[in-house]
Write a structure and sequence with these properties.
It contains 22 helices and 15 strands. It is α+β, with helices and mostly antiparallel strands.
């Protein structure tokens, strides 16, 4: 036959026609024709797909310059045959048929870096070959829908579509139960038809040409942002790129691929511009632990990075730095000696660090004379640099809202309360009964914090709804703490129990509200940590059980832990019950003051429990509006 004697080109040009052929082939099932005794393979089409078969045959003829065998009309439908060499070419790029009833298909690897018109032609062919149907024949804007048992292949098609801003949704259609195992049928919705793909391509092309009249025909695929070069005082260069912007895994609405050539060019530029520093942010995005089951393209970026890191000598003057919040997920090969082998922990700033951060971010702000940044730094333990910057920003906005010319301590206190307690919900409608119950609840927390040895100092208490809470009691440590002892943990549980105990004393056990749920949750967390992690239980002993280890314990061991946690909470409840009964008059005074003033700081709380009047400056009329 001519198809066996004619020469097949050694190289095939990448074109939309080739991509469309690959898309049709990936959607269909190949078959070896052994009945004729010829070394040929074929592709089945339905009897109603004669036009599609002719399109496929003509494209194969044009691409490979061969004459195909005439199509046969068999019991399975129409069969078009072609040489084995062409079949091997198609299998190499789209995946081969594994068994008689299953196919292992994949998106050709070269498409991940191909222009948009090539990728869209592949999707065009896939939709034609799979017999995709539009959700409504009358509305061409609705997506096309196709189904398959091959979830992985449909997911790759969805990723390819999302790279070029074509909406694609993969969902489980149904599960057919059989005697052996259930069969899962998956549905893929692609938000553009073949004709729409062409329109989308032209719209993108016109948009780019409008921005630059002299621009050549663009490659309409999403390019990864790899690096930026900034000069630094030491007369070298800093190469900076973010790992999450260059992730080699495809997923989400804005899928991104980092090419290996970009990694090589980055390292080459670093050598040429030495001395230089290469900084990789969020390195866990490209340096996570490898898995043998991962696809090749998911590991190629990390592999290239490891190879290039090994190619540096100590005298080349290039320093590599990286940052991550999850060092435990990094691949061991990345952190071995000779690569990223120096680890620098960056904890939350201490009081001196917070003061320095506040000083930097307040350089362009007009601060009042009474503002002392060191005092603000001491009053914000546990704040990160971003939170401190946000504190100054909120304070400046509040000063502008009050028409103040400078930012004062009052504005900074407002900002700190908003960050710690959340925004006030002034529009919430609270009944007098609910407000009184909240006042007693927060009053119980407050008195427990004031009179329990080891408790953190009181900062502020409010019955104004903030966030999801109807009231908040805030405690702040006087200094930065690195460790906590047993008495301080017990004090934390006592403070958590204060709200519920106050409600039970005032309104009775039957009127205790659901507002104590978060308090019980927090108390249980602390008690569980004391028993299972810190060795602070005489019954359980000096052991440390993580969540996974606790799952492996015997029934008696789990019951012992539960009993000890319950015992700690109940003993705390008894201690707080005795304390609040002793200070019942102070609880009533504090609740009355909270109902009247809504928010009290530490000094005002101390005056309220003593029955002294609380003095405040009147609120300006313009702020009441």
């Amino acid at each position: 036959m001519n198809c066996l004697t004619n020469g097949i080109p050694e190289e095939i040009e990448v074109s939309p026609k080739l991509a469309r052929v690959l898309g049709i082939y990936a959607a269909k099932s190949g078959s070896r024709d052994s009945s004729s005794g010829l070394n040929v393979n074929g592709l089945f089409f339905k009897s109603s797909e004669s036009d599609l078969m002719n399109l496929f045959a003509e494209s194969i003829t044009d691409l490979f310059t061969v004459d195909l065998l005439p199509g046969d009309d068999s019991d399975h439908g129409l069969l078009t045959s072609y040489p084995v060499l062409i079949s091997q070419f198609l299998d190499r790029h789209c995946g081969a048929q594994q068994t008689e009833d299953s196919n292992f298909k994949r998106v050709p690897e070269f498409l991940w870096t191909a222009p948009a018109n090539i990728c869209q032609a592949f999707i065009d062919g896939f939709l034609l070959g799979s017999g995709a149907k539009r959700m409504s024949d009358s509305d061409i804007s609705l997506p096309c829908v196709t189904s398959s048992l091959d979830k992985d292949f449909l997911r790759e098609v969805a990723w390819l579509a999302s790279i070029h801003r074509i909406k694609a949704t993969l969902s489980l259609a149904e599960a057919e139960k059989s005697a052996d195992s259930p069969t899962l049928l998956w549905t893929l919705e692609i938000g553009s038809t073949p004709s729409d793909l062409k329109t989308l391509h032209l719209q993108q092309q016109n948009q780019v040409n409008e921005d630059n009249d002299d621009a050549a025909l663009p490659i309409l695929h999403k390019n990864a942002i790899i690096e930026s070069i900034d000069r630094v005082p030491f007369s070298g260069y800093v190469y900076d790129f973010c790992g999450c912007d260059n992730e080699a895994f495809f997923g989400g609405n804005n899928a991104v691929l980092l090419h290996n050539s970009k990694v090589r060019s980055l390292f080459s530029a670093a050598r040429q511009k030495a001395p230089s520093i290469v900084f990789i942010d969020e390195i866990d995005a490209i340096g996570s632990k490898r898995n043998p089951r991962d696809q090749t393209y998911m590991k190629q970026t990390l592999n290239q990075l490891l190879v290039d890191l090994d190619g540096f000598a100590q005298t080349e003057g290039v320093i590599f730095m990286a940052a991550t919040n999850f060092p435990e997920v990094l691949d061991p090969a990345l952190t071995r000696p000779g690569r990223f082998d120096r680890v620098v922990q960056v904890p939350l700033p201490d009081v001196r660090g917070r003061a320095a951060i506040l000083k930097i971010h307040s350089k362009k702000m007009h601060l009042a004379d009474d503002v002392d940044l060191s005092v603000i730094a001491r009053g914000t333990p546990g704040f990160s640099g971003a939170q401190l910057q946000n504190l100054l920003n909120i304070a400046a906005i509040e000063a502008i809202r009050q028409r103040a010319k400078k930012v004062s301590n009052k504005h900074l206190d407002f900002a700190k309360d908003r960050i710690i307690m959340g925004s006030e919900r002034k529009s919430a409608v609270i009944t007098p009964e609910s407000k009184l119950a909240t006042a007693y609840h927060e009053g119980g927390h407050t008195l427990a914090a004031m009179y329990t040895p080891g408790a953190m100092p009181l900062h502020k208490v409010t019955v104004m709804p903030r966030g999801h809470a109807l009231g908040v009691t805030v405690q702040l440590p006087e200094i930065d703490r690195d460790s906590v002892n047993k008495s301080e943990y017990l004090a934390q549980i006592d403070v958590c129990m204060g709200g519920r105990v106050a409600e039970e004393i005032v309104f009775g056990p039957e009127k205790v509200t659901s507002g104590c749920s978060s308090d019980l949750e927090r108390a249980t967390q602390v008690a569980t940590a004391m028993v299972t992690q810190f060795g602070m239980s005489d019954k359980i002993g000096l052991v440390a059980y993580g969540p996974e280890e606790r799952e492996k314990l015997s029934t008696e061991g789990k019951r012992a832990i539960e009993d000890e946690v319950r015992s700690l909470n109940e003993e705390s409840n008894s201690r707080v019950m005795e304390l609040l009964k002793k200070h019942r008059e102070e609880l009533d005074r504090l609740a009355k003051a909270l109902v009247e003033y809504e928010t009290l700081d530490k000094n005002e709380v101390e005056r309220a429990v003593k029955g002294l009047p609380i003095e405040r400056d009147p609120v300006p009329e313009e702020l009441k509006k």
